[in-house]
Design brief:
Elements (H helix, E strand, L loop, with lengths): L16 H4 L16 E8 L2 E7 L14
Antiparallel strand pairs: 1-2
Length: 67
C-alpha cells in the first residue's frame, strides 16, 4: 500500500470532525460507509490520524471540503 507524501495531505484543522473520524472522505467529504482506502497519516498534537478517501478516482471536491 502506498501512502501519499505528507505535503499533499490536508491538516487536521482543515477537516470536519466526520472526516477526522473516517466517517466521511478526507478529500471530497462524501460518506464513506463500508468502502474506503487509506490516503495517508498526519500528526496533530502528537496523535496520529489516518485519513481515508472513498475511491482512487475521488478527485471532485464538494463544497466545504479541504481538497
Amino acid at each position: 500500500m502506498s501512502i501519499q507524501p505528507v505535503a499533499s495531505l490536508p491538516t487536521i484543522d482543515q477537516l470536519s470532525p466526520r472526516q477526522q473520524m473516517a466517517m466521511n472522505c478526507a478529500r471530497c467529504a462524501r460518506r464513506l460507509g463500508m468502502s474506503g482506502r487509506v490516503w495517508g497519516e498526519v500528526r496533530h498534537l502528537g496523535l496520529v490520524f489516518r485519513l481515508w478517501v472513498c475511491a482512487p478516482d475521488c478527485s471532485t471536491p464538494v463544497p466545504g471540503s479541504p481538497a
